Automatic annotation (TrEMBL):
UniProt-listed GO biological process terms: Mo-molybdopterin cofactor biosynthetic process
One Pfam short name: MobB
Name assigned to this protein: Molybdopterin-guanine dinucleotide biosynthesis protein B
Species of origin: Ureibacillus thermophilus
Source organism superkingdom: Bacteria
Length: 178
């Protein structure tokens, strides 16, 4: 199977404490409840090798992910070790699991469609630095007044942004959210 050919891929990005893992849990749960097979990948961006049972990884599994992995400092917690891992290498392994959707937490600079979480005005720099933005979800401490080319939701509008993302997955936007 060609990379990204039969499944949808979406990145959840933002700085630490912005709510990425909580959003991942919610999206995994919603997709799994609709019968989708979901895989989750977390980038351990705080340096070092991730613990054997990463709390975020466990949260992804408990939310309903069929496959959940965490990568950090060259260690992919499926207990496979090599010099380093690229996101493409991890995604190729995920091809084995016949997934409908893969949610990626982190890897800000990768090419896939992104949901950006913003908690403070200083974090708005991500809107200029990152590409392929699907939508933005912001906290009340980060007001976005400028008109954007993509949907902008308040973190309190959970029902609206979940519905938007589920429609994207089920819609006629091609097989891959890229």
């Amino acid at each position: 199977m060609a990379l990204g050919r039969y499944r949808k891929i979406l990145q959840i990005v933002g700085y630490s404490g912005s709510g990425k893992t909580t959003l991942m849990e919610n999206l995994i749960s919603q997709a799994a409840a609709q019968g989708l097979r979901v895989g989750a990948i977390k980038h351990h961006g705080h340096g070092g090798i991730p613990e054997e049972f990463s709390k975020d990884n466990v949260r992804h599994e408990q939310a309903g992910a069929c496959v959940a992995a965490v990568e950090g400092h060259g260690t992919l917690r499926l207990s496979i070790h090599q010099e380093s891992w690229t996101l493409d290498e991890i995604l190729m392994m995920y091809d084995l699991f016949n997934l409908d959707l893969i949610l990626i937490e982190g890897y800000k600079q990768e090419r896939f469609r992104k949901v950006i979480l913003l908690r403070s005005p200083e974090e708005m720099e991500l809107l200029e630095k990152l590409s392929n933005i699907l939508c933005v979800i912001h906290w009340p401490t980060c007001v976005i007044e400028k008109k954007m080319d993509y949907p902008v939701f308040s973190i309190d509008e959970e029902e609206r942004y979940i519905k938007f993302l589920m429609e994207e997955w089920r819609g006629n936007h091609g097989n891959v959210i890229v």
